[in-house]
Design goal:
By secondary structure, the protein is an alpha/beta fold. The protein has 13 helices and 25 strands. The strands form six sheets. It has an eight-stranded parallel barrel with strand order 3-4-5-6-7-8-9-10, surrounded by four helices. The protein has a five-stranded antiparallel beta sheet with strand order 19-24-23-22-21, with no helix packed on it. Helix 1 packs across helix 2, helix 2 runs parallel beside helix 7 and helix 8 packs parallel to helix 9. Bound molecules: 2-acetamido-2-deoxy-beta-D-glucopyranose (5 copies). One 2-acetamido-2-deoxy-beta-D-glucopyranose binds next to loops. InterPro entries: GH, Glyco_hydro_5, Ricin_B-like_lectins.
């Protein structure tokens, strides 16, 4: 699809970046853990930037194979900049030989889905008559051919949509959740892929939940499951879900599982806007973000601080952009994802399902892809997540620098760049200057002596050398601590950094610091984060042409 106006050459170069990522190779495998980081066999950090791809619903096959060729879908995952897929599976696919050997065609036909059969015949003829377990292998293999890592996620026992408290799949001992069957399934799946390089991890069970949840049983069975997986496949990371739909791991504060192996244990946490108690719609956005992030810390983020890897294996939002609560949640989530440099997996890749909850061709409003799997549902989101797809920190980053600060703008996914001493603008974080947010509250471009200064209300922020004036002292204010604020030297008026519609960095009256729940402060939200990522703008003022309005209006992926 063509852009509505011809892009500048620089913009064109930037647009090609995801395509370059597609040509990337797998990291040095297998993965293991080094304190809170995941690292490759060479000790370098590997950041998981994954999409969830469902393969656990009634047909027990990866969604979308009736709409696109499997290689094309895998290529699309890579082209969007993801390096990994969390591929879901139901236990019975590994333990019920009748299901595992059922030809894909029959699995669809028994559910009355003749149109899907026709679609698979057109788009994936080689898969149509394969047994379901081989279809699963082919999906893993297609992802491998595009250098996409795979995490196998045991989502349910019985094939079907997940998750409810009462679906009999919620906790060990529930109607369909026999611990022995589960261990058998984990062992079988780990064994099938014990020789498959791009399978880098297994998440043992998705979203434990329901009335029978029990912490002591959690330790008992998770330890057994982890040992079973490790014995069959010592290469994979072993990923453990918390309780209450994987919303809480707080019980791990004082006691970690006891395992006979080390260097492979990862925890996973889920964070959706709809789990946040309705705060997003009714509170001031600064207050909501603060309150929810405090709660997410207590429920799981503390693990990173304790030196354990924590994978945000599900987050997601309504990609139509019309859900106010989701939009607010997402910006807050992205600020945390940048600050903590999280490993994550978005829900979801699929734009639609063969069948979900009884509805044929169900539209996934959280899907990266459109209903027909042909285009990105929300192309500007893919630009927005791009800077979070590679690591800011961690061991062994290529050409890493001394840690410096980035001024990240979660509304756009861009960073504040000093392109000349008179102009600052949003641009790709990869091109940022190395900033230092000092203990004297100055925002200095490292080794230039130049610092950020507020000039006036509604005017561009500038760089200058006299950094001791009030207009160069930037405090992080409001409950979100994302308003970056200084006082005008001439008359003491308090202003906040703001991003203009053209991406210019200006200072304005601070917006919606307190109380007002209707006001949207996001253009004024900036997160000062730590990075040691290589950047060409390291210690100089950049001399770059302007990148124009962001995001570009009609991108296609
Ligand atoms: C195994 O799978 C087949 C095909 O889906 C199903 O008919 C059968 O009931 C399953 N067996 C068990 C024990 O669940
Ligand atoms: C994988 O598992 C099979 C079956 O248990 C075993 O024969 C094989 O040696 C294993 N391969 C590796 C690389 O561990
Ligand atoms: C959890 O399970 C253990 C072992 O079966 C049992 O003794 C304990 O009472 C259970 N706790 C709760 C709160 O149900
Ligand atoms: C900022 O500068 C101070 C003083 O020179 C230094 O101690 C600190 O490490 C720097 N921090 C960053 C993130 O660059
Ligand atoms: C201070 O100066 C700014 C910019 O010139 C102006 O908009 C604002 O009204 C002034 N505030 C006061 C209190 O005079």
């Amino acid at each position: 699809m063509a852009a509505s106006s011809p892009p500048t050459p620089l913009l064109l170069t930037l647009l090609l970046l995801p395509a370059l990522a597609a040509a990337a190779s797998l990291p040095a495998l297998p993965l293991s853990t080094a304190s809170r980081w995941l690292v490759g066999a060479d000790g370098r950090r590997v950041k998981l930037a994954c999409a969830n791809w469902a393969s656990h619903l009634e047909p027990a096959a990866a969604e979308g194979l009736s709409r696109r060729g499997v290689e094309g879908i895998a290529g699309r995952v890579a082209a969007m900049g993801f390096n990994c897929v969390r591929l879901t599976w139901p236990t019975y696919l590994a333990t019920n030989a009748t299901l595992a050997s059922l030809p894909f065609r029959w699995s669809l036909e028994r559910l009355g889905m003749r149109e899907s059969v026709a679609g698979v015949r057109v788009n994936n003829p080689a898969l149509l008559d394969l047994p379901l377990i081989d279809v699963f292998r082919e999906v893993v293999s297609a992802l491998g051919s595009k250098s996409i890592m795979v995490i196998l996620d045991n989502q349910m026992t019985t094939p079907g949509w997940c998750c409810s408290r009462t679906d009999g799949n919620g906790f060990f001992g529930d109607k369909y959740f026999d611990p022995d069957e589960w261990l058998k399934g984990l062992n079988a799946m780990a064994t099938i892929f014990n020789d498959t390089k791009n399978v880098v991890g297994m998440s043992l069970r998705n979203e434990l939940r329901g009335p029978n949840q029990n912490i002591s049983l959690w330790y008992r069975y998770m330890q057994l499951g982890a040992e079973a997986v490790h014995a069959a496949n010592p290469n994979v990371l072993v990923i453990l879900s918390g309780l209450d739909f994987d919303n809480t791991l707080s019980f791990l504060h004082s006691k970690k599982p006891e395992l006979r192996f080390t260097g492979k244990l990862v925890f996973e946490q889920h964070w959706y806007g709809f789990s946040d108690g309705g705060h997003w719609e009714i509170l001031n956005q600064n207050d909501a973000c603060r309150m929810v992030v405090d709660s997410i810390w207590a429920k799981g983020l503390f693990l990173l601080q304790q030196g354990w890897p924590l994978f945000f294996s599900e987050f997601g939002f309504d990609m139509s952009g019309t859900h106010i609560g989701d939009n607010r949640y997402l910006t807050c989530f992205l600020s945390v994802a940048a600050e903590m440099d999280l490993d994550w997996a978005i829900w979801a890749l699929q734009g639609s399902y063969y069948i979900r909850e009884g509805i044929l061709a169900y539209d996934e409003s959280y899907g990266l892809l459109s209903w027909d799997w042909c285009t990105a549902r929300n192309p500007s989101f893919i630009k927005r997540i791009n800077s979070l797809q590679s690591p800011f920190q961690g061991p062994g980053l290529p050409n890493s620098r001394e840690p410096y600060n980035l001024i990240f703008h979660p509304q756009t996914g861009l960073c504040v760049l000093a392109t000349s001493s008179k102009s600052l603008e949003l641009g790709p974080c990869d091109r940022s200057n190395a900033w230092n947010y000092t203990s004297a509250y100055e925002l200095v471009v490292k080794s230039t002596g130049q610092c950020l200064q507020a000039k006036s209300v509604g005017e561009n922020a500038k760089l200058g050398t006299d950094c001791s004036k009030p207009s160069s002292k930037w405090q992080l204010i409001s409950n979100s601590r994302m308003h970056v604020s200084a006082e005008l030297t001439k008359n003491g008026t308090r202003v906040c950094l703001d991003a203009g519609p053209d991406g210019a960095i200006i200072t304005n009256q601070c917006k919606c610091l307190i109380i007002d729940p209707a006001c949207n402060p996001e253009s004024q939200w900036f997160k000062v984060i730590l990075s040691s990522r290589d950047t060409p703008g390291g210690s100089s003022i950049l001399q770059l042409p302007s990148v124009g309005p962001w995001p570009p209006t009609s991108l296609s992926y």
